[in-house]
Amino acid sequence: MEGKLRTHLFVAGNCANEKSALNKSIVSVYCDDDDDDPDTRAGVILSSRLILTAMARPTPEYWCQVVIEDDIAPTHRYIRESWETLHFQDEINDYPWSSPQLQILVLYSPMVLTIGKFNDHEVAKPMLYGKNPTYKDGDVCTAHTIIEKKDRELDLKVTYQVTMMSDEDCQKIYEDMDDDVKCITMNDCDTHCEDLLPGSAVVCNDDLVAIVSEHHNCDNKKPRACAEIISARSWISNILQNASYASSSCRIVELINFRIVLSLNVFVITNLKNY
After folding, report:
1. Which residues touch 84 (CB under 8 Å, ≥6 apart)?
2. Which helix (H) or strand (E) holds 31?
């Protein structure tokens, strides 16, 4: 059970929360498909170029901005863009209990992890993820998420206590629940639809064990479905070890150039057909 003296207490709605001890590992993620109304979600730093999050309806047109706050940054925040999304499972998933929602955003340029003359100021920190289950059913763990602030105020990184449900209890509510999905309930309130953003991190015994899924028809009276990390650890590990993602800016330029060339080819072929 994770239990520490509560400090820095905030209140969002009717649900009390505390400042996240993992605020260097959690980022704000804003994604858009050119409709000028970005979706807001949380993300977990895996490396300087890779961010783990959750989406129900990823599309090829999706682009995302990742924001990490820092007190001594020029504008108190660093912003990075992602034009490439890697999917644990490719299909659109409006029913997050039926299959796990896990996406990795590949950043165009690396995130700043440390700065200063001796690199002694930590801006961001990759999060450890569990290679083996580090919790039992009924354990109390923590969910780390974002409270979005308006205008140019910095987002808050907060944590809530949650309980890990047994698969048997969750299946009573979600009959077609996937084996790679885990359910959680909030301990102090029943407002997970408002308080837990998609991509929030569920942490047990200092290990990332699950990512909170996106529910388009969320019901606070039901538990929240999450994607278990244990099932995706090989997928995550392979991406982290893939040398090509160490130069993701080249990959993104190639991807953009390919789309431009493809569009030009379609334009030329269409014009030729008109002759």
Report:
1. 105, 106, 248, 251, 252, 255
2. strand 26-32
Residue range 18-234 forms a domain whose CATH class is mainly beta
What does the block give as tokens for 96? 């997050």
d(CA 245, CA 248): 5
- Cα–Cα distance for residue pair 27/131, rounded to 1 Å: 22
Spatial distance between the Cα atoms of 238 and 201, rounded to a whole number of angstroms: 20
Domain ranges of the chain: 18-234
Per the CB < 8 A criterion, the answer to whether 88 and 129 are in contact is: no
Phi-psi region of 34 (alpha: psi -120 to 50; beta: other; left: phi over 0): left
- In the block, tokens 């997970």 appear at 192
Give the pair of three-digit tokens for residue 211.
């990512």
Tens place of pLDDT per residue across the chain (275 aa) = 443 333 334 344 457 889 999 999 999 999 887 666 778 999 999 999 999 999 887 666 678 999 988 777 778 888 999 988 899 987 667 788 988 999 999 998 888 888 776 677 888 899 988 677 779 999 999 999 999 877 667 788 999 999 999 999 999 999 889 999 999 999 988 899 999 999 999 999 999 999 999 988 899 999 999 999 988 988 998 998 886 775 544 333 334 443 443 444 443 334 434 44
Q: Which two tokens stand for residue 232?
A: 């995706």
Cβ(213)–Cβ(227) below 8 Å: yes
* Model confidence pTM above 0.85: no
